[in-house]
Amino acid sequence: MQARSIIRGKDIEDYSVRNPQGEDLGTIKDVVIDTGEGCIAYAALSFGGFMGLGDKLFAVPWEALQYNATDDTFVLDVPKERLENAPGFDKDNWPTTAERTWLTGMYSHYGYTPYWERRMER
């Protein structure tokens, strides 16, 4: 019997995110679920700052992250510079899934089709 790859959302908080070269890109702070669509809208990645101070959060399409079971990390295959220039938000002012224009820009930045558009293609 093959093991399923499932993980609880609350358990991935503070998981490290690295690029394929092993460089640290930050940590996952949370995942945001679009309850109307029944899927994860994005992962919130903390990047920069010192000991959690001064860093901002970046929305990353969930499908852009690949889980690495060997060391319980996620791999994000984007250059650090692209992440530094990504749409970010303040820890106290999270965007909502209703803000489709903002989400469309975020998905486009990473080169992904927004999840609600992929559902229409099926």
UniProtKB/TrEMBL annotation:
InterPro entries: PRC-brl_dom, PRC_barrel-like_sf. Residues 7-83 form the PRC-barrel domain. PANTHER family: BLR1072 PROTEIN. This is Photosystem reaction center subunit H. It comes from Methanoculleus sediminis.
